[in-house]
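Notes, Module 5: Reading structure tokens.

Key idea: the token line is not a picture. It is a compressed description, and you learn to read it the same way you learned to read a sequence, by spotting repeated patterns. We will look at two proteins. The first is printed below with its tokens.
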Amino acid sequence: MGSLPRPAGGFADWRLTVDGLVERPSSFSLAELKRFPSRSQITHQACEEGWSFIAESTGVPLSYLLNLVGVSTRAKYVVFFPFHSAGYKWGSLDMPDAWHPQTLLAYGMNSEELPTRHGAPLRLRVPRQLGFKSLKHLSRITVVETVKNLGKGLGSSSPEHGFSWYGGI
């Protein structure tokens, strides 16, 4: 996916909406997310197209945010949507991968702000899966029981482009 320009003034007006099968639907600014407990981890990102890199990602563990909003016991998937429609439009994780301690909502990379070309203001980082699972430019997270009614019902837009849904490495 190509790079989007960083808005003048940064992402001060950007918000992450969290809804679906949660007790407390919420909306968070980037500043609010940065006040939550964070984690930094150096991991390898392998792309399905053959390139890879190693970088330090800093962000909020997805599990922290899921606990904060109160996920329903009916939840089976967490679905992620970017704030633009270019390229891959949406993706999902099953609950075990969403709760995994390495799964981050990253706002930093290599001790700096996350660059726009790497998904600013917020990117999902799933180091145990191929790069297409680490969706960029997040704006909404929805917790659901099924993904059958989203897109073509394949769990993300990636299978519509020839990739597997899981993408594990």
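Here is the second protein, with the sequence above and the tokens below, as before.
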Amino acid sequence: METIEKRDEFVSRFSKWNGDEKLAGYPFVENRHAPFAPVRRALPMLNLGLITSAGAFIDGAPGFDLESKGGDLSYKEIPVEVGAEDLDFAAKGYDDSAVREDLNAQIPVDRLLEYEDNRVIGRLNHVWWSLSSYIPDAAAVAEQLATKIAERLKRYEVQAALLIPASRLCHQTLGVVAREVEKHGIPTMMVSVDRTVSDKIRPPRVAYYNGEFGSVAGKPNWKQFQHRVLDEAIRWIESFDQPTSRKLVVELESAVEASRGER
């Protein structure tokens, strides 16, 4: 199965795109089918990899190029021990105020370490992967970046991957990455707040809700909200038995909490 169906058509349309930063006229990839890798290890036993596209990098190190038409195809491997105070962000297409206020709103390392402590997952892989928030060249993502990420996941013996995009465009980027990763036999789950884009790309597993770019993993400084997003998304990695997109119940649960005056 191709990571991008009708690749040549996309390449042709992309070559004619004017590079508008607001994505006017941008030729989003559209796929009809999705690869699917079954889970081979129970959640409490697996090594979970985290992939985000908020453009995070260690302060003082090279960031991401946000100016080229095709985007920056590099990635950063960041140890889980690196704290929020040591990170900076090359943000394009989303407001980075939420992730700067609370890293877990977009890069939920603390929440996932809590799941590790509580035996929800076996462990969080000791490095996570950071991608640029602005990579318009989806064909290059499929042929270069996604393959490299899949190889790194296999190198670290990651048994499942959680993907969290930050902007509208990087819903496409991580959707393409998820497709390639599953082709390499590693199950994925992508959290989405833009169902229109994620439905076009067709990542194998999608958990979506009506959230906001820049805080896709949950509202900043609201641990319970973040847990609601992640709880179902992570457990669905194991329960989905075919390519599926399913809505999270986070909004309903949060509305009930607000009506009780608990938030």
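Summary for the second protein:
- The chain is about 35% helix and 15% strand.
- The first helix runs from residue 7 to 16.
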